[in-house]
Amino acid sequence: MNMKAVFLDAQSLTDLNLETLSQCFNNFTAYDATSPHEVADRVRGADVIIVNKVVLDSDTLASNPSLKLICVVATGVNNVDLEAARSQGIAVFNCQAYGVPSVVQHTFSLMLALQTNLLSYHQAVQAGEWQKSTQFCLLDFPIRELSGKTLGLIGSGNLGQGVAEIAKAFGMKVIIGARPGTAPTEGRVALAELYRQADVISLHCPLTEQTENLINADVFNQMKPEAILINVARGGIVNEADLADALRKGKIAGAATDVLISEPPTSDNPLLVGDIPNLIVTPHSAWGSIEARQRILDQTIENVKAFRAGDTLRRIV
């Protein structure tokens, strides 16, 4: 099957070898990034579009009758008009569970950094505080163990389960919150109970109407003052202004987030000012290990082969 393919936003994978992917097609073009006004020209005449975050709306799909396949190099497919794809007979495949080890590792990197005050100690050494110490060590910042603490998970899919497994190895008790808007069931506690019990709350749920602004000022008022919050899920689940306020007022002990509502963030984001204590922000990098990104590439190649063979592996539409 002769196929012309275009990869619209390959920038997050360009340090990997794309040769094996390109060999799947007779004609393959990869762009680091594509702005909205460039999409129509770049996808014209393509049989296959490979995309990460670039929006493919109904007009774009309707303007390309040759289009047969869309490969999303991510799990989320909200940037593709799936109904338009379905009505035009365009297959849509995504990547799944590729980043579990990477995100779980990042979750505990953040959790451990907060519980050990790692950044504060590093900065103190850089500032010469250890050199001025009257004893062999520096213990200016509280250090708390994970062992014996309660981890509250909101979201218990592959990522949540992966975090739970490692948490138990640290000796933590794990509780799982009920889905927002639903009553607790066997194995899941009410969210209000989770907020009160947890020493660490870790978010691994999608951003939906039910989870948007889920973690807000009311939740911070219910949490333990020594509790910490980890968000490696999606921006928008946590109210950013409320989080900044809670940290400044000491309502919780710390927080770390890998995601923000707007990405890349704007300069006026309330979490990117310099006066918020015990906050770690990483640039949506939890998923981005070399191994995880190679799995994305491998899965995309598998998806192309599955499409050609008529298989439904990871097929969304």
From TrEMBL:
Which segments constitute the D-isomer specific 2-hydroxyacid dehydrogenase NAD-binding domain? 108-286
Tagged with keyword NAD: yes
Q: Which UniProt keywords apply?
A: NAD, Oxidoreductase
Which SUPFAM superfamilies does UniProt cross-reference here? Answer: Formate/glycerate dehydrogenase catalytic domain-like, NAD(P)-binding Rossmann-fold domains
- InterPro entries listed in its UniProt record: D-iso_2-hydroxyacid_DH_PdxB (IPR050418), D-isomer_2_OHA_DH_cat_dom (IPR006139), D-isomer_DH_CS (IPR029753), D-isomer_DH_NAD-bd (IPR006140), NAD(P)-bd_dom_sf (IPR036291)
Give residue ranges for domain D-isomer specific 2-hydroxyacid dehydrogenase catalytic: 16-317
NCBIfam families (UniProt xref): PRK06487.1
Q: What is this protein called?
A: 2-hydroxyacid dehydrogenase
This protein's species is: Neptunomonas concharum
User: What lineage is this protein's organism placed in?
Assistant: Bacteria, Pseudomonadati, Pseudomonadota, Gammaproteobacteria, Oceanospirillales
